[in-house]
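Q: My labmate handed me this sequence with no annotations at all. I'd like to see what the chain might look like in three dimensions before we decide whether it's worth expressing. Could you predict it?
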Amino acid sequence: MRKMMIMAAAAAAMMATPALAQSAWSMDNARGYGTLGYSYLEDSYTGAVQGRMGVELNRYLALESEVGIGVKDKDFQVAGVDGTLEHEWDAAGYVVGKVPVGENFEVFARGGYGHTEMKRTIAGQTTDEGGDHWSYGAGAEFKMNADNGIRADWTRREYKGDLDSADAYSVSYVRRF
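A: Here is what I predict for the chain of 177 residues:
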């Protein structure tokens, strides 16, 4: 897993290299952005309203953080006993490498670290689920104009310990400021 994270970080750095060669490093080129959308966690069948805040350091490199609040729980049954898996919250930080594909479209890869908190209740007993995870993924953004866009992405969460990995799929509105 660490090799994959190192490779993703190296790929993001390589994608950002042309931007650094084209213009001097300057915070004058930095621009903030925020997103609001929905994220579906495939393996647990839960969902969250998700917000992101980020800064585009240049056209090829960004830093972003995200926070999600669970809004879709999963009901299940084990041996005739009802249970619920609740997505409580999640948070993460990422380095994002971007590649423009035309004037209004870009693809990106991102890697980072986060935490997901879930709660499993069965027969009146509650257990905490989730935990810390390394995350990596890819996506695309269509820019409707200089300030607004639509973004879709996939993120793999590789949990520490005994927990399995999970795939999250997100769609969100993007606003630059």
